[in-house]
Write a structure and sequence with these properties.
single chain; about 70 residues; alpha/beta; three-stranded parallel β-sheet; 2 helices; 3 strands; globular; DHquinase_I; Aldolase_TIM; 3-dehydroquinate dehydratase activity; shikimate 3-dehydrogenase (NADP+) activity
């Protein structure tokens, strides 16, 4: 068994819109990512339903993160 069979590749996605996030997820999938981290703090959205829509349409297993900006 090779090293690849023992690990998963996670791509971190920091995008401004759900459309950009979906496109980046497809690109990560095409490049071999096994899962993605969706950094929703990087998105500019007007309603939580946009995040819900993103989660329903995701094409890879996902970790959702939200980091508070400390000033």
């Amino acid at each position: 068994m090779g090293l690849r069979s023992k690990l998963l590749v996670c791509a971190t996605l920091e995008c401004e819109s759900k459309e950009e996030m979906m496109a980046s997820m497809e690109k990560a999938k095409g490049e071999g990512a096994d899962l993605v981290e969706l950094c929703i703090d990087s998105m500019s959205f007007s309603h939580i339903s946009e995040v819900e829509h993103l989660l329903k349409r995701r094409t890879l297993p996902s970790i959702v993160s939200f980091r508070l900006k400390v000033s």
